[in-house]
Design brief:
Blueprint (H helix, E strand, L loop, with lengths): L8 E6 L2 H11 L4 E5 L2 E6 L2 E7 L9 E6 L3 H10 L4 E2 L11 E3 L6 E6 L5 E6 L1
Parallel strand pairs: 1-4, 5-9
Antiparallel strand pairs: 2-3, 3-4, 6-8, 7-8, 8-9
Length: 125
């Protein structure tokens, strides 16, 4: 069966468009594919992120987007070197870098937030 769906797009709301573009572009290294008066499309691998500014936006507590990476420790160290702060949740048992390891020792996850508080994640399966 031929796929009828195209490129996945995640919608992330922010309160300050330029601040978000600086974070996603400089700290995370995502390229802007296109912009219009309503927002920006950023390249996120084979997917796109649509940043849309809503002046009174307040982020929720749960992750809105994540990346599966081959080496989570290297990715965390690289992003931390760019100023990204990883969140350590009390009681999760994360290591000093903020990486949580599943009880089976295989899956690993690290969480961080954009300037608006949108929770983002890195995972390694």
């Amino acid at each position: 069966m031929a796929a009828i769906l195209g490129t996945p797009v995640a919608f992330i709301h922010v309160s300050d468009r330029q601040r978000a573009l600086d974070f996603y572009g400089q700290a995370l290294g995502l390229a802007v594919r296109s912009s219009d008066p309503f927002g920006d499309f950023l390249e996120a691998g084979e997917a796109l992120i649509r940043l849309t500014a809503l002046p009174d936006f307040k982020a929720g507590a749960h992750p809105v987007f994540g990346w599966n990476v081959a080496d989570i420790e290297a990715a965390v160290r690289t992003l931390a070197g760019r100023g990204v702060v990883f969140t350590i949740y009390e009681g999760f048992g994360q290591d000093a870098l903020g990486i949580w390891t599943a009880p089976d020792g295989k899956a690993k996850v690290a969480w961080f937030a954009d300037p608006d508080g949108n929770v983002l994640s890195l995972s390694q399966a």
